[in-house]
């Protein structure tokens, strides 16, 4: 059955004073005990199942009822021993805790036991006042009765030394001890003496037979006398269990327990200067008790049973009934008087009509509080009430004790007896706490299920807080208060037992105060343990870590560095998994400094390493100090493994956990192998490289066998013997201070015959990331694997980081699908093969930033880094026109045709070096680079070549380069029809300088297959400053007729028809006729190449936007590069400079200016599709809805997209011949005014109102009508309506199909029609 915690019950149990004669003491010393109190010590807690009557006369059986036996001299002759100096108690606790290892986890139990057992003998509480006194005489004395009388006289005379202690109301218990070893086995005399004692002193008397071991036996082994905080619960020995060693150990454990025998265990410390000479001679350190002797040498198993029976008889037959009687007596006499009419009136008058004087007289009444001496007289109501409450508490009548303590704390507070009030307040709350149903003896032994409510728990905690505050207010904050610690420990033990953890940590920290002493540190550490209990969540982790840091600081101040390290270690484990980096850094730094101070340099290095993680919020440069301390600790380290790690890389794996940096220096995912022949493949995506490789194979025209692949393997690197390849490492400094990496190298397996470069030093600024290239060369065919990178961190600390990374996820088996399994990564594996042709290509002299359309000169350097000669070197680029060979002198090329290839993506390569290039040779090719588009340009290229002696050995070297293209000019055009005879259209060109540099516009070139520049319309040279806009006008005429196929594009329509009707077609068979471009004959070859590249980029982007479902490679084969009706504009610009070498020039392009109206080229295809749908043709079914949706999008983009646009081709202009600026003057006296107009309108007119006819392509017609105006006024000219129908004239002599047949046998088939209501403005007619 449950009961209050044993440490709590034991510390507040009845105290029994023992006053024995000298003969009794001698009998006890024969068993190694200093007196009868020590002889009874092992059995004082063994009284079980004790029935106790409550204040309501309800019997309750309690599982145990412990006692505390003490010597009479420790209370009356040497009261200082019962009230030890608080400083001595603190020092003793410090010594006891320091003598233990932190891993023993005895720091709290030692502190608790010594705090509770060192409760002082004080007037404000009676728990340490003796409840009873045991008088003991021996039958071996000449006059036992006389000795007993002398003992009673001694007691009567000593009571005056403690006037505030009630020595009259003590239960007196008499023991007659018969020492068999001295008085023999005859007990007749002993019984006679006992009878005499009972006649004289009453029934509270008994006989104790002891020392029955007469035979001399071999001394047992020395018992374990180590000081401990436990409470041993000894049981009497049976004859079968009689064992000298076991019996001796029972006494050794009881006398070494700080809880049961604090004075005997550490007499030299607690007793102070008042200790006797014998005690002083036996004094020793707390870890080694004073006594080193055998115990119970004269006792037998029967003696132990008699001793236990004596204690039980004392408890059951004498002490408990006597205490019950006193409670009833005091409750009736004193508390009844206080509840009477006089007491209530006196209390009410004192409460409501006045108060006690601020400084009452020292001896105002015989029963009041004596402020000079600081206590109540023994006969006062308050003193007896306090003893009544303490008696009720000792008998575990907690509800009655609660009410008594409640009335007492109010009376004490009114009397301003603050020490009394604090003591009553603490016991009031403790009594409430122990009134929990769980502590009732009738409660089944199971965990508590009904904890206190929040209100109840808050109230109980408030009484503890009031008491602690009262104790702490009596002294400075830096001085420890044992009373506050002691009562908090009592509350804490009760809270632990019922599982109540709300606010427990706060209570322990509050009791610890601000003193930098070991008890305070122990309490705060225990608060940290309580912070994370009592709940499923981890809400108290941060509070626990904070309390651990507080405890560590106090441990360190008190000199217990091992305990301080233990607390910091536990706190660091919490902070490492939390985002509170500032606190974690402070803890790790303190741990490192402590470890270095204690000589554990290797441990200090580990803690300093944890501080070297990335910290973006720290003070810049703060981690530099950590590096300095780490260097000092490392220099003092004797770890050979650390110092020889660089020389013995095989030790890296074993020391990996110990040397691991919190933040890796090298990025494993970005680490890559770069062969000299594939240095460019590190840029761009694999898909782009594979697309470029496919283009190279599609146009393969070399001799010999076509290779299987031109690109390096995706899952590995292949190099030749003697070829140097590189490992690209990316190092990042995670610190906010500069860092130096020394002797950076990699570990390669196997390492025989491998030359590996070692970088001597790499300096990294704070948070800097840098790429590091290490060269490796093999002299034999093999397979290499890079496993790790090693370096000296900040020049002194050897570190290694693994380069292993997992491959792709495997899904082939069920086990791999259930449990994630990954393939072995092969990206850092190098295959060294026999010699083969190898080239290294790099582009030199290309700036990092160019303006859009700018042309710069560069050099393409080709180096033969292999062992074989190569020839026929060509290059294929991902963007055609970006690079072109530079001729010594560019010409106008007027003898060449004014055309360019009419294909979007030409697959031809550029010849660079047709002749042989020997091993080690280098060739520089002069090229011109043109910046097309804006943004970051990443250009990929494959440099194709063949072996000079073995044409079957063809290979390719990747080339990649990038540059940023900045916008320079913004071009826009707003064409309109011209009514003059000099040109058909006027095209205003607006050029805006969007850069920060002045730009000179040198010339403007219109390019088109149908439109040409009118004579004398070329704009002059202009200079534009930033944000300025220039406007020039181009007058454009049609160049004449053009082939109908160029306009209708039958090849394009046929290919699109196959796609729409889901027919397979060979796109390679689609060919586009070349177009002669007007204006191109005046351009140089370089302009033509740049124009073709820009046009190709525009055309492909235009088609991808209008045909999103057609792949880009199909678009480039279906559609031509040029549109016959498009007008493109080229603007040549220059950025001048005083230095001719800094002059920049280039071209700006404007594409796709449409002048003529659009005409559908897919009308026939639309009719075919409509006819097929109307005829119920079979449609291709699809399995997936997404496929059907894409087909619908394709059909819409073809039949209703940009190719199906049909616009009104008729342009109308109104003109009044006689009008000047819309005003006509006429003398109406001469009659009406007739004005000819081109079309009829809503007014009175003369002549026909309708006009119809046919307009040929690029033709015009004039229609005239006359308006009859009778009087001056404003005449509207917008009343006309124009109906236009476009169509085709088809040769159809056999079938009329209901249509009008012409004279020439042609049939008109309409396509689209428009109806337009005119907006001709007004005409003002005036009278002259």
Helix-strand blueprint:
Elements: H1 6-11, E1 15-20, H2 22-29, H3 36-39, E2 48-53, E3 59-64, E4 68-71, H4 72-75, H5 86-99, H6 107-117, E5 130-138, H7 144-158, E6 171-179, H8 180-183, H9 188-201, E7 205-210, H10 244-256, H11 262-265, H12 267-270, H13 277-281, H14 301-338, H15 341-352, H16 381-394, H17 398-414, H18 418-434, H19 454-472, H20 482-498, H21 504-512, H22 518-531, H23 541-558, H24 561-576, H25 581-597, H26 601-610, H27 622-635, H28 640-643, H29 656-659, E8 672-675, H30 686-698, E9 717-720, E10 724-732, E11 739-749, E12 754-756, E13 759-764, E14 769-778, E15 782-793, E16 797-802, E17 806-809, H31 814-818, E18 822-824, E19 829-833, E20 839-844, E21 849-851, E22 855-864, E23 870-877, E24 883-885, E25 910-913, E26 922-930, E27 935-947, E28 954-966, E29 969-973, E30 976-977, E31 985-993, E32 999-1007, E33 1011-1013, E34 1022-1024, E35 1029-1038, H32 1044-1048, H33 1050-1060, H34 1085-1106, H35 1112-1118, E36 1126-1135, E37 1144-1154, H36 1163-1174, H37 1185-1199, E38 1223-1226, E39 1233-1237, E40 1245-1246, E41 1265-1269, E42 1273-1276, E43 1281-1291, ...
Parallel strand pairs: 1-4, 1-5, 5-6, 6-7, 9-19, 21-28, 38-45
Antiparallel strand pairs: 2-3, 8-10, 10-14, 11-13, 11-15, 12-14, 15-16, 15-19, 17-18, 20-22, 22-26, 23-25, 23-27, 24-26, 27-28, 29-31, 30-31, 31-35, 32-34, 32-36, 33-35, 36-37, 39-41, 40-41, 42-45, 43-44
Helix pairs in contact: 5-6, 14-16, 16-17, 17-18, 18-19, 18-20, 19-20, 20-21, 21-22, 22-23, 23-24, 24-25, 25-26, 26-27
């Amino acid at each position: 059955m449950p009961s209050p915690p044993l440490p709590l019950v034991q510390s507040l149990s009845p105290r029994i004073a023992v006053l024995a004669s000298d003969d009794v003491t001698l009998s006890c010393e024969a068993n190694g005990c200093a007196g009868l109190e020590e002889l009874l010590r092992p059995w004082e807690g063994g009284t079980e199942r004790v029935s106790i009557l409550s204040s309501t006369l309800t019997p309750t059986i309690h599982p145990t009822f412990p006692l505390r036996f003490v010597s009479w001299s420790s209370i009356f002759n040497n009261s200082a021993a019962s009230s030890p100096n608080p400083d001595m108690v603190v020092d003793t606790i410090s010594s006891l805790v320091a003598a233990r290892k932190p891993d023993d986890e005895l720091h709290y139990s030692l502190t608790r036991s010594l705090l509770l057992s060192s409760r002082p003998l004080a007037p404000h509480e009676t728990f340490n006042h003796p409840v009873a006194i045991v008088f003991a005489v021996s039958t071996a004395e000449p006059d036992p009765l006389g000795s007993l009388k002398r003992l009673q006289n001694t007691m009567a005379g000593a009571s005056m030394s403690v006037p505030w202690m009630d020595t009259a109301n003590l239960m007196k218990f008499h023991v007659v001890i018969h020492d068999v070893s001295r008085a023999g086995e005859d007990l007749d005399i002993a019984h006679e003496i006992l009878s005499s004692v009972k006649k004289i002193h009453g029934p509270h008397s008994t006989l104790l037979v002891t020392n029955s071991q007469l035979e001399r036996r071999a001394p047992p082994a020395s018992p374990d006398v180590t000081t401990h905080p436990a409470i041993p619960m000894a049981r009497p020995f049976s004859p079968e269990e009689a064992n000298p060693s076991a019996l001796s150990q029972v006494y050794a454990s009881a006398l070494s327990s700080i809880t049961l025998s604090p004075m005997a265990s550490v007499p030299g410390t607690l007793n102070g200067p008042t200790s006797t000479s014998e005690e002083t001679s036996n004094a020793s350190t707390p870890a080694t008790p004073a006594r080193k002797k055998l115990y119970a040498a004269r006792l037998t198993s029967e003696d132990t049973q008699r001793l236990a029976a004596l204690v039980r008889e004392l408890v059951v037959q004498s002490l408990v009934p006597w205490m019950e009687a006193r409670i009833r007596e005091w409750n009736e006499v004193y508390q009844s008087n206080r509840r009477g009419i006089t007491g209530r009136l006196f209390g009410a008058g004192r409460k409501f009509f006045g108060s006690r004087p601020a400084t009452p007289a020292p001896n105002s009444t015989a029963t009041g509080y004596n402020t000079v001496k600081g206590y109540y007289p023994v006969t006062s109501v308050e003193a007896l009430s306090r003893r009544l409450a303490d008696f009720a508490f000792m008998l575990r009548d907690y509800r009655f004790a609660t009410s008594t303590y409640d009335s007492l704390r109010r009376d004490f507070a009114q009397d301003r007896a603050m020490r009394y009030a604090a003591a009553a307040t603490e016991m009031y709350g403790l009594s409430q706490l122990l009134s929990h149903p769980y502590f009732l003896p009738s409660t089944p032994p199971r965990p508590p299920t009904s904890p206190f409510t929040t209100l109840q728990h808050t109230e109980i905690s408030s009484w503890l807080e009031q008491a602690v505050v009262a104790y702490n207010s009596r002294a400075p904050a830096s001085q420890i208060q044992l009373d506050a610690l002691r009562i908090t420990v009592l509350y804490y033990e009760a809270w632990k037992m019922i599982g109540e953890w709300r606010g427990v940590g706060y209570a322990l920290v509050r009791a610890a105060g601000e003193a930098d002493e070991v008890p305070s540190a122990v309490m705060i550490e225990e608060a940290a343990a309580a912070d994370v209990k009592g709940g499923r969540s981890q809400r108290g982790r941060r509070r626990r870590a904070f309390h651990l840091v507080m405890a560590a600081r106090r441990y360190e101040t008190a000199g217990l560095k091992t305990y301080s390290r233990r607390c910091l270690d536990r706190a660091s484990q919490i902070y490492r998994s939390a985002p509170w980096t500032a606190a974690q850094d402070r803890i790790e730094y303190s741990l490192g400094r402590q470890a270095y101070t204690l000589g554990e340099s290797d441990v200090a290095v580990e803690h300093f390493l944890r501080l070297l993680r990335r910290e973006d919020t720290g003070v810049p440069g703060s981690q530099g100090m950590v590096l300095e301390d780490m260097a000092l600790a490392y220099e003092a380290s004797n770890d050979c493994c650390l110092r020889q790690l660089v020389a013995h890389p095989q030790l890296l794996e074993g020391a990996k956990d110990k040397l691991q940096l919190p933040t890796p220096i090298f990025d494993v995912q970005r680490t890559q192998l770069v062969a000299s022949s594939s240095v460019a493949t590190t840029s761009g995506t694999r898909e782009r490289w594979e697309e470029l490789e496919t283009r190279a194979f599609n146009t393969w025209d070399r001799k010999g066998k076509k290779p299987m692949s031109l690109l390096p393997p995706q899952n590995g690197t292949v190099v030749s013997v003697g070829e140097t390849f590189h490992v690209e490492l990316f190092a990042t400094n995670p610190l906010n201070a500069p860092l130096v990496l020394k002797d950076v190298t990699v570990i390669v397996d196997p390492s025989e015959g491998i030359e590996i470069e070692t970088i001597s030093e790499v300096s990294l600024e704070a948070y800097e990331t840098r790429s590091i290239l290490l060269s490796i060369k093999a002299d034999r065919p093999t397979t290499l694997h890079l496993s790790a990178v090693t370096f000296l961190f900040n020049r002194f600390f050897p570190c290694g980081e693994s380069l292993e990374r997992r491959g792709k996820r495997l899904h082939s088996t069920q086990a791999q699908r259930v449990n994630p399994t990954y393939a072995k990564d092969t990206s850092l594996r190098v295959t060294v093969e026999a010699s083969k042709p190898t080239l290294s290509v790099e582009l030199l002299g290309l700036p990092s930033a160019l303006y859009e359309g700018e042309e710069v000169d560069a050099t393409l350097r080709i180096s033969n880094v292999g062992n074989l000669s190569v020839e026929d070197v060509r290059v294929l680029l991902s963007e055609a026109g970006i690079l072109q060979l530079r001729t010594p002198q560019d010409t106008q090329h007027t003898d060449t045709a004014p055309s360019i290839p009419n294909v979007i993506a030409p697959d031809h390569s550029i010849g660079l070096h047709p002749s042989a290039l020997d091993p080690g040779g280098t060739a520089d090719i002069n090229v011109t680079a043109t910046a097309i588009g804006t943004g970051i340009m990443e250009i990929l290229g494959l440099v194709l070549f063949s072996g000079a002696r073995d044409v079957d050995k063809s290979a390719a070297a990747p080339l990649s380069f990038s540059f940023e293209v900045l916008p320079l000019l913004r071009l826009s055009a707003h064409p309109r029809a011209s009514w003059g005879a000099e040109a058909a259209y006027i095209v205003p060109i607006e050029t805006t300088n969007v850069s920060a540099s002045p730009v000179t516009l040198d010339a403007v070139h219109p390019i088109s297959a149908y439109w040409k520049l009118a004579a004398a319309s070329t704009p002059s040279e202009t200079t534009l400053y930033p944000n300025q806009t220039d406007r020039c006008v181009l007058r454009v005429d049609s160049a004449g007729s053009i082939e109908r196929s160029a306009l209708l594009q039958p090849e394009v329509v046929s290919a699109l028809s196959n796609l729409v009707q889901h027919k397979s077609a060979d796109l390679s068979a689609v060919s586009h006729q070349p177009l002669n471009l007007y204006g191109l004959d005046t351009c140089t070859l370089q302009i033509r190449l740049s124009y073709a590249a820009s046009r190709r980029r525009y055309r492909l982007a235009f088609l991808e936007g209008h045909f999103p479902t057609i792949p880009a490679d199909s678009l480039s084969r279906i559609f031509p590069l040029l549109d016959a009706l498009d007008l493109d504009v080229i603007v040549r610009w220059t950025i001048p400079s005083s230095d001719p070498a800094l002059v920049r020039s280039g071209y700006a392009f404007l594409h796709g200016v449409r002048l003529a109206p659009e005409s559908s080229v897919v009308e026939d295809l639309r009719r075919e599709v409509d006819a097929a749908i109307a005829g119920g043709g079979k449609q291709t079914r699809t399995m997936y809805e997404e496929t059907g949706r894409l087909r619908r999008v394709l059909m819409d983009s073809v039949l209703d997209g940009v190719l199906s646009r049909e616009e009104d081709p008729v342009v109308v202009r109104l003109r009044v011949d006689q009008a000047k600026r819309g005003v006509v003057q006429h003398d109406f006296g001469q009659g009406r005014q007739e004005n000819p107009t081109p079309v009829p309108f809503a007014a009175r007119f003369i002549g026909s109102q309708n006009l119809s006819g046919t307009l040929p392509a690029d033709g015009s017609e004039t229609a005239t009508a006359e308006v009859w105006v009778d009087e001056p006024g404003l005449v509207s000219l917008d009343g006309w309506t124009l109906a236009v129908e476009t169509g085709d004239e088809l040769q159809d002599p056999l079938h009329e199909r209901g249509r009008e047949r012409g004279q020439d046998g042609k049939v008109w088939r309409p396509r689209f029609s428009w109806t337009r209501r005119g907006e001709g403005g007004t005409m003002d007619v005036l009278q002259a």
